[in-house]
Amino acid sequence: MNSKKNQSPLCVIMLALSFSGCFVVDFADASQNKIIAGPKKVRTEAKASNSMSTKPNIVIVITDDQGYGDLGCTGNPVIKTPHTDKLAKESVWLTDYHVAPTCSPTRAALMSGHWTNRTGVWHTIMGRSMLRSNEGTLGQFFRDNGYETGMFGKWHLGDNYPYRPEDRGFTEVYRHGGGGVGQTPDVWDNAYFDGGYFHNGKIVKANGFCTDVFFEFGNRFIRKCVKQKKPFLAYISTNAPHGPFHCPQKYLDMYQDQSEKIASFFGMITNIDDNVGKTRALLKKLGVYEDTIFIFTTDNGTASGRQIFNAGMRGQKGSEYDGGHRVPFFMHWPNGGMKKLKKIDTLCHAVDVVPTLLDLTGGKKPKGYKFDGISIRRALEAKSMADWPDRMLITDSQRVKDPVKWRKSSVMSQGWRLVNQKELYDIKADPGQENNVADQHPDRVAKMQAFYDQWWSELEPTFAETTELHVGHENHPVVSLTSHDWIGGPTPWNQGHNRSKYPLRKGKDAKHEGHWALKVLKTGKYQIEVMRWPAESGKAINEELVAGEDVPGASKAFRAQVGQSIGAKSVTLRLNGKALQTKPVTDGAKSIVFEARLTKGEHELAPFFSVPEGELGCYYAVIKTL
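Below the sequence we write its predicted structure tokens.
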């Protein structure tokens, strides 16, 4: 249900290497040079202001799985985040800012200004992490308003055309595949160090730790834009500190008194913090610091830091309680009057970010596009919020094939939380959400339930708008598929799963339950090539892979495990539940190629290998228009 025209990063790999509440609220329109440091001096780059433009620049830093309590400035007694702490002390700080409890849904809301469930993104895998092609994005909005737009790091809203960031308004893109480094759509055998990433659709080699590399490319983009005197939007989105837990040794050494996992988790955050400091220093060096809106935020509650500090909140990543979705949000803009600490307790959500930024920059939205969020500019600039209207907002954690009403949900108002339909919490008196007071406030419960019912009724019809992988587009004749986007059944979303034959279990009756949802745009003949290993690996279907090199940290790299042989005897092309063709797997075969006539319309593709345990879905496939 989440895929409109798709060509995954894996597709690009294979091509490159083997084919050489607030309801709908209508918002009024409102060089590659490097810094060279020596022992005594720093060669300063030529300063260039945006004097030719009245548009402020925008830098958004969003991290992955870092919670509200994973910063020194929020009270964490262990973590070292001096640069982000300094930013917070010089910013407007939204203390009651909320997102979705997991990453892709938050990113969908942040990008589009729409509720995650409206956009089709309510999971992180299973074909439910692709932002529908009819949704607007930050990249599109600001490109259309005269900005250079760059995206660096984690996208996780689709790896195929037309879902990739380069298809959604970003003019410069440097990213990994899927939801993290080493996930199934990513470059094969990628770990957190070195490897390769997608630069404007092409794989390029990388040197260094992933977070450092993503910030480096973001900073190159900033230099280039300043040199050209063009306003810019730089979206720097880290996969860290999401697991697996790897970081440079010097950061691990900073937390020797902690568990190995916490040392890695906090080490990744401190590495991000250093990069935040370097980027802010670069803005000063380039002369654009004063007129750059700099935002720091995260995509959900903490994944690993709760045992150390959680700011008194209940829950963590994935939770419907505040610990799952209340996150830090700092906005710094000296020329906009945002250069001193100002805490704003007004309830806000990720859907408010786009309308607010357009309002602050004087940008216009596309005609007819209605945001679910609102501009909070007045809250940012006001001395008092006494007259700010109360509003209700909703967040939920679906993570299922299709949304379920009231599933892991929170209806939020300024002082209250209605959790899972029946639990009511006075959030000011009980920030830890320990005392359910629903029986004492039946009218409030009924009011919040009614709001949710109305919200659900509006969104529910959109759930059936599937975002299939598009096949047969004249400008995209080759489409790559990975098991990350299987719909139904267990979904192998990382390369460790692929190496371990997941989801096979002992026995001889395993059935392949997943499928790829296709939308064939043109009736015709297609070549369907299926694989057990991705094409760039160069490995045969039944070949066993040796364990690759590990990297520093508490986790074992996905590549550092043996790639098991599956012992496939044959492969079957199954379409819409029917077996069309079966071919033997010969010794040394790297792939099996089928030809089939596909009619225009929607199809379910589920090719599988016949293995000793039963059926094992083909992890990778490439469809080519003939």
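The chain is about 20% helix and 20% strand.
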